[in-house]
Structure formats: structure tokens, C-alpha cells
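Supplementary Note 3. Input sequence used for the single-chain structure prediction.
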Amino acid sequence: MTTMEIDQVLGNNTTIGEGGAGGESGGGLKTTTNSTNNKKKNNNLLEVIQKENEEIKEIFKNTHDYIREAIVNQSKEVVAEILQQINLAWRRLKINLKR
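The predicted structure, written as C-alpha cells, is reproduced below.
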């Protein structure tokens, strides 16, 4: 595999072009790499992923808070029902003791 093929596989978008005329550019072939563009694309992608990650964290936090609140409310309802049943049994006991 040539260097150009390796760079293309790795996504370096390398192009091979002719050097300058004669010895101006050292002659021969020159390699131009768009690594700066790739870094910008990677940074933009990283920012998007980080933003989505924060949104997902917020969704999980809100879901957790909602579930916790629902459990607390359900617990309060259960306690209220138990207290009503105890109160009813207490009243019956009072009535039976008065007889």
C-alpha cells in the first residue's frame, strides 16, 4: 500500500500533486494533508456528542426525580390507607369496650 492509500484509509484526505517547477519546491511530489479540517470536524463532532451526552444526563436526572417523587407519593398514600384502617379498627375497639 502506498502512503497515499494509507492516508485515504485513515481519512487524512491526502492528495498527491506535482512539486514546483525545477528545484523551487524541492522538486518531485508533495503531499498536502487536510488534517486541520479533520481536527475541526472531529472537534465539532465531539462538541455535538458532549451536548447530546449532557441532554441525556438531564433526561435521566429528571426521570430519576420523577420516579422518586412517585414513590414518595405512593408511600404517603399507603400510609394514609393504613392509618384509616387502624383508625376504623380503633373506633370499633372503643365501641366494643364501651359495651
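The two ends are 103 Å apart (CA to CA). Helices lie at 3-10, 35-98.
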